[in-house]
Automatic annotation (TrEMBL):
GO terms for molecular function: kinase activity. It comes from Streptomyces composti. Pfam families: PfkB. Residues 182-286 form the Carbohydrate kinase PfkB domain. This is Adenosine kinase. InterPro entries: Carboh/pur_kinase_PfkB_CS, PfkB_dom, Ribokinase-like. Keywords: Kinase, Transferase.
């Protein structure tokens, strides 16, 4: 059977309210004047992966629990406007929502409404099996109830990836996702030395490729036991917000990975897409296209080659 979907995204559909603050942590005050204002828009981790994957030409489908509420309407409209199929399972608790405090340097603090999800929330098994059987790959967001769907995905055949975000290497909540995935992404933000954690994942779980993103320091790649540092890509404009950069990285990595490209090149795709995402204000949703990705990677590669030639000439002088 030929797969109908390249990337099935499970979980992570929701709405963010963006609040720009003068600094993080927010200074205590009775009131603060906020500019450029407060904006509510659809788009959480799963939404961003789906949008980024679709922009790169991957056939994408998103599955999650979504409420019959204003936030749910925003999520459905986002997918409809971008032509991304969404299977929205009714969620009586309401659509996931969060408040993102964004500092002037683009850093953010996300406050998630924990009342809109529970461990007992189900994704219908038959729906998961049917979509998984039609998909080449499943990217699983670490929101409930996605952990319970992992055995169904594994039995249905697609390869699996997940993003552990700022995992500290200890929190047991992340382990079902980390150990079931063939490809694991995480942020190095909470790790002094990411390599031991990355190696532990390959030793204890299914993954043979683990990527730890490190912002301006690039990314650390462990593929088939070989560690590689991939430098950060130069952003194509001013950095205004880091929201969605990790999701863009993951989608671009998957774009290369599903094409059978070497892991290091996949990571370079990721750094380019992540850098692009940092130039997009958090009040908008915008993803790098396939043509832009290849053009930007070619440009950066040529720049590095020129710099190496100049350095060799200086060294030989």
């Amino acid at each position: 059977m030929t797969a109908e979907v390249d990337v099935l995204v499970l979980g992570g559909a929701g709405v963010d309210t963006i609040v720009h603050v003068p600094e993080l942590p927010v200074p205590f005050a009775d009131s603060l004047m906020i500019r450029p204002g407060i904006v509510t828009r659809a788009g959480q981790s799963g939404d961003f992966v789906a949008l980024a994957a679709a922009a790169l030409g991957l056939r994408t489908h998103h599955l999650d629990l979504v409420g019959d509420d204003h936030e749910g309407d925003l999520v459905r409209a986002l997918h409809r406007d971008h032509g991304i199929p969404l299977t929205a399972v009714p969620q009586p608790r309401g659509t996931k929502r969060a408040v993102n405090l964004v500092g002037p340097d683009g850093r953010r603090l996300s406050l998630y409404d924990a009342t809109r999800a529970a461990d007992t929330d189900p994704l219908p098994e038959e729906t998961v099996r049917k979509l998984a059987a039609a998909s080449r790959h499943a990217h699983v967001v670490i929101t409930q109830p996605c952990a319970a769907a992992l055995p169904l995905l594994r039995a249905s055949g697609p390869t699996i990836s997940t993003d552990l975000h700022d995992w500290d290497g200890v929190n047991p909540y992340h382990e079902p996702f980390a150990l079931a995935a063939d490809l694991v992404f995480l942020s190095a933000a909470a790790l002094t030395d990411p390599e031991p954690v990355m190696r532990s994942l390959t030793e204890r779980g299914r993954a043979r490729t683990v990527v730890a993103t490190a912002g301006a320091e690039g990314a650390y790649l462990l593929a088939d036991g070989e560690p590689t540092h991939v430098p950060a890509a130069e952003p194509p404009g001013p950095v205004v917000d880091s929201n969605g950069a990790g999701d863009a990285f993951a989608a671009a990595f998957l774009y290369g990975w599903l094409r059978g490209e070497p892991a290091e090149r996949c990571a370079r795709y990721g750094t380019v897409a992540g850098a692009y995402a940092c130039t997009v204000p958090s009040t908008r949703v915008d993803s790098i296209t396939r043509a832009e990705l290849h053009a930007r990677l070619t440009e950066l590669t040529e720049d590095r080659q020129i710099n190496r030639q100049i350095n060799r000439q200086i060294s030989g002088a």
